[in-house]
């Protein structure tokens, strides 16, 4: 996971806050981690299937 590009939530404050980071650019999975534990090799990463993550995001928007 050290070579992926992480994106922090737009709802996060400038210092990371209590949000998540999502790795972009992987076709089948969406890695998610705690923004407070960002950095190479820091903290656990949860892997979601892309379709399941898409459903989750859609439901959160509603």
Unreliable parts: none
Overall body shape: globular
Tell me the strand percentage band: 25-35%
Order of helices and strands: EEEEH
Radius of gyration: 12 Å
Give the rounded overall mean pLDDT.
82
Main sheet record:
4 strands, antiparallel
**Oligomeric status of the shown chains?**
single chain
Helix content: 10-25%
Strand order of the largest sheet: 1-2-3-4
First-residue to last-residue Cα separation: 30 Å
- Class by helix and strand content? alpha+beta
Describe the protein in words.
This protein has 1 helix and 4 strands; from the N terminus they run ββββα. The protein is α+β, with helices and mostly antiparallel strands and 62 residues long. The protein has a 4-stranded antiparallel β-sheet. It is globular and about 25 Å long.
Structure, briefly:
By secondary structure, the protein is of the alpha+beta class. Helices cover 19% and strands 31% of the residues.
């Amino acid at each position: 996971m050290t070579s992926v590009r992480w994106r922090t939530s737009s709802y996060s404050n400038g210092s990371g806050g209590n949000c998540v980071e999502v790795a972009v650019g992987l076709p089948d999975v969406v890695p998610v981690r705690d923004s407070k534990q960002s950095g190479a090799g820091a903290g656990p990463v949860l892997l979601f299937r892309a379709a399941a993550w898409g459903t989750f995001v859609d439901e959160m928007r509603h």
